[in-house]
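Hi support team,

I'm opening this ticket because the web form for multi-chain structure prediction keeps timing out on my end. I have pasted the exact lines I submitted so you can reproduce it. The total is 591 residues across two entries, so I didn't expect it to be a heavy job. Is there a limit I'm missing, or should I split the entries? Thanks in advance, R.K.
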Amino acid sequence: MPNRSQIQARAAMMRVRFEAAGAQVVDTPLLQPAETLLDLYGEDIRARAYVTSDALRGEQMLRPDFTLPVVQMHMSDGAEPARYTYSGEVFRRQEHDPDRANEYIQVGYEVFDRNDPAGADAEVFSLFALQLRGLPLRAATGDIGILTAAVAGLRTTERRKAALMRHLWRPRRFRVLLDRYAGRTPEPELRSDLLNATEPMVFDAPMIGKRRASEIEARIEALREDRETPPISDSELVGLETLLNVRETMPFALEQLRDVAVDLPQITPALDRLEARVAALQARGVDVARLDFEAAYGRTSMEYYDGFVFGFYAEGRPDLPPIATGGRYDALTRQLGNGAEIPAVGGVLRPDLMLEIEEGAQ
Amino acid sequence: MSLKLGVPSKGRLMEKTFSWFEKRGIALSRSGSDREYAGKVEGIDGVSLVLLSAGEIPRELAAGRIHLGVTGIDLVHEKLPRWEQQLEEISQLGFGKADLIIATPACWVDVDTLDDLDAAAAAFRKTHGHRLRIATKYHRLVREFLTDSGVADYTLVDSQGATEGTVMNETAEAIADITSTGETLRANHLKILSDGLILQSQATLWRSRVAKYDAAEKAVLSDLLDRLR
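Hello R.K., no limit was hit. The queue was backed up. Here is the completed structure from your submission:
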């Protein structure tokens, strides 16, 4: 196993390469206010991050990743365009697998640039590929933007689209909602009783708690409206299902997705962006004809990404987490920007795993 | 050295544990006054009694400081994510039965399932500007259950007692707690979600896989287990 100083040395070397590509070195505090992280990730982050606290500042988390503090830093006082690099420890709680590290070093590169998003995507991916050159890795790519465009353009109510969008990251839940909106699952009996009742708000129990009667009435109203809404059409449903199953090398994936766009024309602008990205990757010397593209990639693990996503995985080592991951997160800058926003793309690498794979190969 | 048996140090759980062992010919008792946490064992040699809070027994078993212990399934599963590697379940004792459940105000007529809870949580966050709060002391079990069920936009708030009262006091919108008869829930105008059962618990005798056993302790253990099973 590589020791800490070897890992530090490798991380420093990788950071220098990113500096040579034009990045400015930044650092962020190890302790992050828990509130921002909880707001962004929800309760799940508590299972992944170490929480500590004091009476003065309240709950703090040991930095679970760099992206959030780097985005915050850029949004509060960064100049445009900007390229940043960093390296340092991140901490992840491990409760189930004692072999997974709970503290490791990440090296990252983030680009905040309004011009040429396809070029920025290709820049990040090809710089990462360069850092990882020679290692037996498989690259996977995807694009969350195609799926969100497909959902946003469905011919149904805003409420249904918002519910689907909210659960884009939870495939099982997404499936349940889709089946319901397609009229494939029967209405639960208790719900029928409630919606058929002439006075659903007349009941025995006293009104308690912070959720008021008006909120309960509003939900009943929403459920009644939803019952009157026609099901999502078969052609849209088939389109969505075909889209989610696209798994091909990049040029073929693009071709298949163009076919899907016959049923789901709303994805065409996202496909144009994908096509521009393929061209930009090719221009940087990436062999796109052999690069995998999965339309559903990044759906379960990469919550703040909303466009291009990628990951590098060790061949023959399914026990290892990804060696590098990254993607585009325009919406995150909007969420943290207090009104401001900027297109952003970046990712992180794990020098410890790179060294481990190199040792294993010798 | 002797085989160490950890038993809850007070209340009905202690008494029922004592009588469960009694029926199997092993008399456990507290020595000295009621306030003294020392005990003795009659009917078998080589076993010593350790009186502990039920909440500490999982940790003591996992650390191997006691060989056997009686405590609830809920506490073991909550405190020891890898309990199967650390503990062996010897016998469920048939008392201390309780369900870990999710309950909401009974007045939420639009909420019957986790699916409803998720929808209500999304709307609640929009209206009130914060996530729907669920009061509990079983943080890990509840979080894993809700993640598996795809519920989002909630937050857990810690409640170590009188959890059923948090909704009325508006420090939480829903609760996750253990209940045996449901009476306290009803008295506090709460109802259980129809698919809100997280775990069924009861008092259980566990063996530590981590503790060290010398030859004499091994012999006592096998003799004891023969009489208990």
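A quick check on our side: Chain B has two domains: 3-96+203-228, 98-201. Let us know if the file doesn't open in your viewer.
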